[in-house]
Amino acid sequence: MNNYYTSTRNKKIQISAKEAIKKGFADDGGLFVFPDLNKLHIDVNKLINLSYEEIAQIVLEKLLPDFSNEEISNSIHNAYDESFDTKEVTPVADVDDFHVLELFHGPTSAFKDVGLQMLPQLMKNVLEANNKVMILTATSGDTGKAALEGFKNLEKMGITVFYPHNGVSKIQKLQMTTTNGSNTEVTAIKGNFDDAQSNVKKIFNDEQLKKELGLNVSLSSANSINIGRLIPQVVYYFYSYMQLVKNKHINIGNKINFTVPTGNFGDVLAGYYAKQLGLPVNKFIVASNENNVLTKFFNSGIYDRNMPFFQTVAPSMDIQISSNFERLLYYKSGEDTDYVKTLMDQLESEGKYQVSDEILAEIKKDFYCGFSTDDEVKDSIKDVYNKDGYLMDPHTAVGYKVMRDYQAHDAKTPMVLLSTASPYKFVKVVADAVMDDIPDDDHEIMEKLAQQTNVAIPDNLEKVWSLPILHEDVIDKSDMKSYVKSKVEAEFYDKN
Ligand SMILES: *Cc1c(COP(=O)(O)O)cnc(C)c1O
């Protein structure tokens, strides 16, 4: 049995899961993937009545073969015992004729918590005795806070988050700037998200800076292409399936569908991994917003990033390159790394590539793809609330609309819709859809929405309004490198 990860662009690379987590992505620019994924079988019959954490243990042992069972177990407990507001971690709600898998019960009320609570725990087991690591994250809103919460107060690790000044919502800004913890750094930069992102990349590649930081300090990222974020997401596909079995909606072995609001393709790819491991799934419904590069790919076989960019009401899905799609191309091409490399080189040089008819057909066996406009998002939020009393956030509503489109072809297969954020995280759009007379202030909107709908405000979003602001830095985008250097010195050299 193979126990190594390889690169999507070069099958000669062999690397352990621990090394893959440490590095993030391969030196050739490819992503780390596990060959022959479908040979690692998980028998759903053995998952009956297991808790979320017990299922996580089974899934992670399979996919992280060089971690000891104890390392995995400690990581799971540290990640999920205390930080989620329910023991179930990702509970399933029954709504109308479908099931909502709620991924927003973590410390920041967004689905990224599932991966970002786990990644730092896994990283702990990867650092050698004297090593210290500074995590750098550029964020357009959600990832920054989820990363801060994941890495907060961990020994030998620090985290620095850059967000665009005036480029995130009021709640998102408050969430980040009120973060406590001994090792957390947050600063606004005078620039946009792309400036933050491209400067962070430059910092990673700065050899001079590496020398200055010293041998024992490395820089790393909490990027969504890291297998340490991706693999924990496989767990909730198994867990939600077992919930449907437990509640007698299906018999064990029956196939179900999953609808997934999609940006970088990490979440839905984790579902495909679950299917490869043996979860009985018919189709994954991939839902995009008006940045619908993927829908066009499904219709034509051409992936073309040269499309107008839209700022939508589901901003965490405003993405033109779904990085994790490269991993699907690897599996669907029969693990042909030369082929994937050719496509990715074309994407780099021309901004587009075209797959063969055979590969497109292979992809369509497992996936359906569609998109939702902003107006449709608001209609969906309103319709589902009025009809079923269930309040969805805009990202989830993108999924809902595409799910209903798909069901015109297949209404019978049981359906799970993944919900990726609390409605209170994007409260203006949600209030707009279900309320009249909307106050100006986000905090007031929250309170009013809670009163009207009886849906509780998550603790962290309720409390954030009264917390002290701990991070007020605003820096020039050209000063990011020196900022990192001074924070590394403060974290790792000046403290005791
Ligand atoms: C990141 C995010 C998504 C998209 O997930 P991907 O794994 O990038 O496809 C969807 N909804 C919300 C709220 C998110 O934060």
UniProtKB/TrEMBL annotation:
Keywords: Amino-acid biosynthesis, Lyase, Pyridoxal phosphate. It comes from the Bacteria. Its EC number is 4.2.3.1. InterPro entries: Ser/Thr_deHydtase_PyrdxlP-BS, Thr_synth_N, Thr_synth_N_sf, Thr_synthase-like, TrpB-like_PALP_sf. It catalyses: O-phospho-L-homoserine + H2O = L-threonine + phosphate. It holds the Pfam family THR4_C. Residues 5-80 form the Threonine synthase N-terminal domain. One of its GO terms (molecular function) is threonine synthase activity. Pathway: Amino-acid biosynthesis. Its cofactor is pyridoxal 5'-phosphate. NCBIfam families: thrC (TIGR00260). PANTHER family: THREONINE SYNTHASE-LIKE 1. Catalyzes the gamma-elimination of phosphate from L-phosphohomoserine and the beta-addition of water to produce L-threonine. This is Threonine synthase. It comes from Companilactobacillus mishanensis.
